Amino acid sequence: MPEVIKNYINGEWVDAVQGNTFESNSPADNRDVIGIIPESDISDVDKAVAAARAAFRSWSLTPAPKRGELLYRAAEILSKRKKELGELCCREMGKVMAESLGDVQEAIDMSYFMAGEGRRLQGETVPSELPGKDAKSVRVPVGVFAQITPWNFPTAIPIWKLAPAIVCGNTVVFKPAEQTPVCATRLVEIFEEAGLPPGVLNLVHGFGETVGEPLVRHAEVDGVSFTGSNVVGEHLAVICAEQHKEFVMETGGKNPVIVMDDANLDLAVEGALWGAFGTTGQRCTAASRLIVHDDIYDAFLASFTEKTKQLTIGNGLNLENQVGPIISKEQYDKVLAYIEIGKKEGATLHLDGGAYTKGDCAYGTFIAPTIFTDVNPRMRIAQEEIFGPVVSIIRCSDLEMAIEIANGIAFGLSSAIYSQDVNKTAIAERELDAGLVYINASTIGAEIQLPFGGTKHTGAGPREAGGRGGALDFYTKWKIIYRDFSGKLQKAQIDD
Ligand code: ADP
């Protein structure tokens, strides 16, 4: 029996005001209906924002270390329930069990990390230029946040947003991806169990246009954090700019792995494989372009192709499977369309993965790992985000050419180089125009204690994750305090 899911508003679990619902199905098996989900609209948004607004003052005045303790308790519960949450993530999102457990682990890590931030949240004290006067900066909460998340990290990305917002003293209305609502609900239940006061975190299920957008536009929302597609992010950026709202967006990537002639080839093949086909290519940091030096091209391609063919495809609940399904029929059609585009553009379909319907996979949306060679860097398959298990291999003859190809895209999220020459890796570190650079490691695997984000069309606004220089800078604003205890009028910048 599918679980009947509710919205969470002001500490109460409630149906959508209009009473409409939709289903959440497993992408690995469309017979597996996981939840019946409230299909909310603007009236639910209004209630949730009102609750978040009402809770804001008292939460913002709760000492930050106490707010942190609550996150610590949430992290403890998440840890205890890791396996159960991992299985749910696997069923609802499709990523294989090892990766689903990793998704939950990232949520745990972020909760612990942000719990600790409750005892830091540092500002600065600096000397004043005048006697009998001091000067300091303090972080203050922003207000009510709208947090809109995608489906590809159904527990990690929500916690990336919820944990810093909450520890910084904000209140939240959370609109999770419509594809992974049950995972989102579990997370909110955990915050409730951890003792979060009513109204601090509210959950409204539903679709982007009917819930997400009214939420972003709501006059009582002070800030918006969005992870998803470029087209939606850019649309929301305009709304937020017009309304003077804080805004951060994390969107696309087209991430390169450079493999130099002096690379440890086995390591590079393993890294490229993990980057390209981990999470079935459905990561914003997925390695979708392999830029390989002419001198080792044949050896690399032979080994990479061989290892790709060995990957096992199927429902991730079966621990033997390494590549799970594509999230939805819509996304499945898009990935298959890109394979056709690559063929039409004249790239060689070196490994024709394509639609995969063997056995029970016929009940899901599976695409087998697909490799294009003879790819020109200007082709659409080498420029646009595919978000599926399709990788383009591009030749290069030296480091300069490799970096030019790597940077020759609209995005700048992640990048990687395999080389054993310290000078080459140092040049790549300096020259790669991306928010993340990995040396002798793949494009995926960011850790939560450092900021995460990219350059160019990959995002806008401050970085997510991390502490200072990252999420804390988005979820607080600076207040600068000058205190004059000299007892006389002192004028800054005015000569005596
Ligand atoms: P994807 O293609 O990965 O599903 P989207 O950008 O469509 O990416 O969706 C990411 C999140 O943004 C989801 O929670 C979705 O419901 C939400 N969303 C989609 N359209 C809008 C919109 N117009 N306004 C606000 N949120 C939206």
Verbal overview:
The protein is α/β, with parallel strands linked by helices and 496 residues long. The protein folds into two domains: 273 residues, Aldehyde Dehydrogenase, Chain A, domain 1 (3-Layer(aba) Sandwich), CATH 3.40.605.10; 185 residues, 3-Layer(aba) Sandwich (Aldehyde Dehydrogenase, Chain A, domain 2), CATH 3.40.309. The protein contains 14 helices and 25 strands. A seven-stranded mixed sheet has the order 15-18-19-14-13-21-22, sandwiched between helices. Helix 2 packs across helix 6 and helix 3 packs across helix 4. The longest helix has 21 residues. The radius of gyration is 24 Å and the shape is globular. 54% of the residues are buried. The structure holds adenosine-5'-diphosphate.
CATH superfamily of the largest domain: Aldehyde Dehydrogenase, Chain A, domain 1
* Share of residues in strands: 15-25%
Walk across the major sheet and give the strand order. Answer: 15-18-19-14-13-21-22
* Estimated helix fraction: 25-40%
Large-scale geometry: globular
Number of helices: 14
The assigned CATH architecture of the largest domain is: 3-Layer(aba) Sandwich
Number of strands: 25
Runs with pLDDT <50, length 5+?
none
Q: Oligomeric status of the shown chains?
A: single chain
What can be said about the biggest beta sheet?
7 strands, mixed
Number of domains: 2
Distance between the termini: 80 Å
Secondary structure class reads alpha/beta
